Amino acid sequence: MASMEENQSNNSTEKPQDIEKKHAAMIERLSNLHQSRLQQQAISRKSDSLPAFESTESFTDRFHESKTSIESEINRCRSLVTDSTNLKSHLDKLSVSISQLEKLVAENSYFLPSYEVRASLKTISDLRETLERVNVELLPKKKFSFKTKKKEQGNVVRTETENDGFDSVLAEKCSIQVRDSPGFRNKEGVVLVKSFGSSKEGDFTLSDLDSCEVRITGCFRALYIHRMSNCRVYVGPVLGSILIEQVEDCLFMMASHQMRIHHAKKTDFYLRVRSRPIIEDCNNVRFAPYLLSYQGIDKDLKDSSLDEETGNWANVDDFKWLRAVQSPNWSILPEEERVNAVKISDLETPSEDI
Predict the structure, then answer these.
(1) In a 3-state reduction of DSSP, which class is residue 326?
(2) What's the whole-model pTM score?
(3) Are 187 and 206 in contact (CB under 8 A)?
(4) Which pick of 131, 161, 168, 248 has the fewest CB atoms within 10 Å?
């Protein structure tokens, strides 16, 4: 009883401003608690409605579903063997589906564990190889389409052979599968130019080039590069992936969602890439950020979802180096050794283009 009277006495002696402060503090605590509850409810509603891959488990479920569908469609192609027109269209659609699966991995690689990214890319590589085997097995190879050009260099007349088809004789001699797609093949000492329109076209191939300069502008789906030496290659944004095999003493400046490099030596790569570049069986390769410029490149990069610099050009995965320490096969290109920004529209007139 005495205690209650004492508390009442103490309360009666509190100043009005002290009471107001306590009241304000209590109101603030209640308001903060209410806001916290509202935020938790909003997060819960958002999680229920998100179609994106907010977890590794949901990503792997979607990836496995797409993989299974592609495998099923590849097997179904054999039933279309008597209808070459529909078969070709079906195989082309499957190639697009695989590219979309690659883009899916690239767009979600920022939160996926590294082993999950590697496993997904290996699966995609296997799907592409299977599709290539079906292409070779079920569709006849295209005939050569030659065009001869003569170029005068002083008193010497130089003749070049150009073809946009699949070089079957060369492919049979080499272990690399050269794709049946438009491109530049079997050139030496020339400047080669290709400009894609706004339709986001298909695949393009560069193979067996020596001492050439290649300039490609616009958006396209995928780029395949085989057997090149002493070349400089400048490429606009690629919607899917770039595969590079057997290159030496080259410079590549390119942007893509994915980058795979096999058997490269003494070569510099200036990249903008959504996922981590992958190298295998490479040595003395160096990496730097993308420095390419041409009229309209900002729009092309935005349309390809490559307008943001992710910094992944410096996050290289060496599949043949599994130790925790830095791989000795690649390095960051020192700033003092990098080339200046390249605006290919200001370069000299090309020798030939398509």
Answers:
(1) coil
(2) 0.55
(3) no
(4) 161
Instruction: In whole angstroms, give the CA distance from residue 243 to residue 59.
Output: 24
User: Residue 233 corresponds to which amino acid?
Assistant: V
Q: Tally Cβ neighbours within 10 Å of residue 321.
A: 16
CA–CA separation, 336 and 199 (whole Å): 38
Residue 294 CA to residue 271 CA, distance in Å, equals 16
- Give the position of tokens 């050439």: 212
Both structure tokens of 246: 């057997």
Structure tokens at 233: 């290659």
Phi, psi (degrees; rounded to nearest 5) at 193: -130, 135
- For the stretch 125-175, pLDDT in tens is 788 888 878 877 776 554 444 344 444 444 333 333 333 333 333 333 334
Beta-strand relationship, 191-195 and 352-353: parallel
pLDDT digits (tens, 9 = 90+) for 192-210: 999 887 656 688 999 999 9
Q: Per-residue DSSP letters for 19-46?
A: HHHHHHHHHHHHHHHHHHHHHHHHHHHH
Q: How far is CA 134 from the centre of its chain?
A: 25
